[in-house]
Amino acid sequence: MKNNYLKSILSFFVFAIFIYGCYFGISWIANQPKIDGIPAPLRNTLRFNEKIFTSLFSQTKKSKEFSIDEAQTRVRKNGLVGLEKNIDTGEYKVMIIRDEKDTLFISIDDIKKLPKTEVIFDFKCIEGWSQVTHWGGVKFSDFAKFYHLGTKNGSIIHDKPDMDWYKYAGLETPNGKYFVGIDMPSMMHPQTILCYEMNGKPLPNLDGAPLRLIIPVKYGVKHLKRIGKLFFSDIPPRDYWAKYGYDYYAGL
After folding, report:
1. DSSP assignment of the chain, as one string?
2. How far apart are the C-alpha atoms of 7 and 244, rounded to whole Å?
3. What is the value of pTM for the model shown?
4. Closest C-alpha among 135, 154, 138 to residue 106
5. 104-133: burial string, b at 16+ Cβ within 10 Å, e else
């Protein structure tokens, strides 16, 4: 009986120390300087995770693809920031900043002249849901090669690993309200497309018409709807959800 009593007292003190340690740890983290919207220890942990994911990333490793019959006909809509107003697709052009002195304006018709590809994959949201969806458009790697994008010398030769690539691509909606920063290896992945079709039909407005990003190696927060501007940088571009404390890399 006495031993049980002593064990109970000891367990209580161990539990109290644990609770105090958790409180102290949380308080210490909360009072640290912030980096990109969250305390430095948490942001540094996310950056460490990003280094691990980056080291494991492979252009040859693809997200699982599905048949058309498995794709949902009613695609879930999540997040409408940057889509507050409809857009005149006839007047639409995406602004591509190759460098400070070289800007292109490319129409959706110009993009459709490039080889079309389709991707059917399990679209994953950071909220925990997923959905098999069917998209059509142009491989970003084909687009980049055709318009000489992503490298500092303006040329792309895929079999040259020493190519002087920019480290990141930045994308924004036409009104600038939604924006993402994405590492170039993920942008150049063979499943990443500039998408203008969903389920074989033109994109609806609330799904990013007339052009959006589909990047199966990332969570949904990176699949920017309605691309208004695209640029390249060696410094991580601003990212809408990263500024609220989410993982910048957002890889799968």
Report:
1. -HHHHHHHHHHHHHHHHHHHHHHHHHHHHHTSPEETTEEHHHHHHHHHHHHHHHHH--TT----B--GGGS-SS------TT-SS---TTT-EEEEEEETTEEEEEEHHHHHTSPPEEEEEEEE-TTS-EEEEEEEEEEHHHHHHHHT-SBTTS---TT-TT--B-SEEEEE-TTSSSEEEEEHHHHTSTT-EEEEEETTEEPPGGGTTT-EEE-TTB-GGGS-SS--EEEEESSPPP-TTGGGT--SS-B-
2. 45
3. 0.85
4. 138
5. eebbbeebeebeeeebbbebbeeeeeebbb
By the 8 A CB rule, do 197 and 137 touch? Answer: yes
Looking at residue 242, its amino acid is A
Farthest-apart Cα atoms in the chain, separation: 84
Low-confidence ranges of the chain (pLDDT < 50): 158-159
Which residue shows structure tokens 């969903």? 198
CA dihedral for 112, 184, 56, 157, sign (positive or negative):
positive
Please say whether the dihedral angle defined by the alpha carbons of residues 10, 13, 17 and 23, taken in this order, is positive or negative: positive
Judging by DSSP bridges, how do beta strands 168-172 and 117-124 pair with one another? unpaired
Residues 33, 41: Cα–Cα separation, whole Å = 9
Which tens digit of pLDDT belongs to each residue from 195-234?
Answer: 999 999 999 999 999 999 999 999 999 999 999 999 999 9
State which CATH number among 3.30.420.180, 3.20.20.140, 3.30.9.10, 3.90.420.10 fits the domain covering 59-78+87-244: 3.90.420.10
